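User: Write out your own:

AI:
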Amino acid sequence: MQLVSLAQAGHAVTNDLLNADVDFENLLPPAMEGLDVFLAKKKKPMPKSEPDQNGSAPVPTAPATSWFSSSKSAKKVSLTSVTSIVDGLKKLYIQKLKPLEVAYHFNDFVSPLLANSDFDAKPMVMLLGQYSTGKTTFIKHLLKTSYPGAHIGPEPTTDRFVVVMNGPDERSIPGNTIAVQADMPFSGLTTFGTAFLSKFECSQMPHPLLEHITLVDTPGVLSGEKQRTQRSYDFTGVTSWFAAKCDLILLLFDPHKLDISDEFKRVIASLRGHDDKIRVVLNKADQVDTQQLMRVYGALMWSLGKVLNTPEVARVYIGSFNDKPMNEAATGPLGKELFEKEQDDLLTDLKNIPKKACDRRINEFVKRARAAKIHAYIIGHLRKEMPAMIGKAKTQQRLIDELENEFGKVQREFHLPAGDFPNVEHFREVLGGYSFDRFEKLKPKMIQDVDDMLGYDIPELLKNFRNPYD
């Protein structure tokens, strides 16, 4: 939008144009030829004497100005530089949050630095479950067609993470290729190495549903210690990475596979912090009759209660999500009606994802800012505890060994909530590769910038700009 406005104002379009000294405040928004005529046909103009919603007489402006916001908000936020909430978050991240993350190595301890593609990515839905619970069939059922690279069978067929997204033609793109594409939000997966990227691919196809959401198909979670050790990559780490990026996580179960294996338990534990995204689906429910279904449902809730560790009851959708006709001999008329209602509820949940995606993005951004702030406090504290000259190695080892106590000191000193602190064991593991005396000292100015962003900039952004998905 900025480039179009500058070009229409007579500036020569070059690589350095956006960084040049341009008066953005007085720059007119882009104008479209023929828009006035089109709007006049669609909508009757308001009488000049009638006041606007704020009670003041309307100021005559170009029709395109209304796309950005009211003229009132132009005083605080440059309309041409921030045209939506997502663009505003990008700008706030680069100016205020990213410097803090870089200074205190947040990307090594918690999460990789964000790129523009992470903000612009479509909402994602991830499917998790043991093998042959119908994950790939569920995606096929949603799309009403198969996708490139889909394999369905009773044995563990999907041996890789497959991202199903919209594209101009049907094709599969290998993981190493997709991870280095700047316009894709998967560059963070390079930290899991080539062993994982060879088990990762992107499946592109033109589809109206994929214009709004991206689906992530995962390998079936296997049981037994042997299967876990034979994976050549950190399966739990990858699912945790996707969980942070996803808007919805569907846990699929089969009436004949209700046991939660050790690996599946670890995977569900790695989803902690994303409980609001989790939905449980009891798939293939038409394979058992009504009495058996009642017992299966009770057994599933019992199993989940031991793993999810929450006092609230998880939402479980019951149905048979495939293209085969329902087995009415087993389910009966009552079962058919139940399945149809449950399927409608789940599809409504999926349809609402694009509308809620902007709010969730703000939610994740605020969560990340809080985590980065606490991380900076911890690193600054560890740096302050180091001696100036003698005994550095001994002090560093003592701090690592007593890390839980050090977390407690930071919490009490800065009055921080205990639940926001990172996992002690993971933090201790990463700290082993650092020299504490090379850490940055705590910079109150950086912390204040993040506090200002959370307290003023984000609320101002929400007040001035509508949800782009509405």
In short: The mean pLDDT is 80. The two ends are 20 Å apart (CA to CA). The chain has 19 helices and eight strands.
